[in-house]
Amino acid sequence: MPLMVERGYSSPILVILGIMTAALAFVVLLTTIVSTLLNDAESQADAATLATVGAPTGMRRRIVGAHAAAIGVIGALIGIAVGIAPGLILARASTNHVMDDRTHQLSGGTYAIPWWSLAVMLIAVPLVAALVSMLFARRKPVLTRRER
Q1: How much is the pTM?
Q2: Model confidence over 87-110: pLDDT tens digits?
Q3: What angle, rounded to 10 degrees, do the helices at 13-42 and 125-136 form?
Q4: Which DSSP category does 102 fall into?
Q5: How much is the pLDDT for 69?
Q6: Residues linked to residue 99 through DSSP beta bridges, in sequence order
Q7: pLDDT band at 123 (very low <50, low <70, confident <90, very high)
Q8: Of 34, 18, 110, nearest in space to 72 by CA
Q9: DSSP assignment string, 18-67
Q10: Residue 26: is it exposed, middle or buried by C-beta count within 10 angstroms (0-12/13-18/19+)?
């Protein structure tokens, strides 16, 4: 009979949090890229003007990347602000009934904020969105005649 070692209870919360972060990051990344490329398609006349006055071809990609980064950061900040309030309220409500061993009284709520998940949403997702949007931006605009 082989010997078995029991490792004890291990919480699956980190795996669940990682899956949720990856899924939400994908959704945010996809919507940021789509909105940025739609914005790029609508600004064809401005790109033609930039090309006419002699802007380098990489300028357009940098502008698209900056738009994507701005949309991603603003969206992440709004999402974190909107999501953290209900999270803190629910955490307080679900952990408010903890008895303190020293004083034998109920203690306040416990908060465990997933900082790495918030950092991924605030830093990594806008950066990846900017790079991918720069990759798919049109390199040379279609030159058209602008009417006055």
Answers
A1: 0.72
A2: 888 877 777 666 667 776 666 666
A3: 40
A4: T
A5: 92
A6: 106
A7: very high
A8: 34
A9: HHHHHHHHHHHHHHHHHHHHHHHHHTHHHHHHHHHTT--HHHHHHHHHHH
A10: exposed
Q: Give which of 28, 2, 46, 14 is closest to 120, Cα–Cα.
A: 28
Q: Please give the C-alpha separations between residue 106 and each of 24, 26, 86, 101, in angstroms, as whole numbers.
A: 35, 41, 22, 9
Give CA separation, 50 vs 63, 137, 144, in Å: 11, 15, 12
d(CA 10, CA 124): 28
The answer to whether the beta carbons of residues 133 and 68 sit under 8 Å apart is yes
Question: Which two tokens mark 92?
Answer: 């307080």
Q: Parallel, antiparallel, or unpaired: how do β-strands 98-99 and 106-107 relate?
A: antiparallel
Residues 6 or more apart whose Cβ sits within 8 Å of residue 83: none
Q: What mean pLDDT is predicted for residues 50-67?
A: 84
What distance lies between CA 96 and its chain's CA centroid? 30
Query: What is the amino acid identity at position 52?
Result: T
Backbone angles phi, psi at 63, to 5 degrees: -65, -45
Residue 48: half-sphere exposure toward Cβ, Cα within 13 Å: 11
The letter for the amino acid at 50 is L
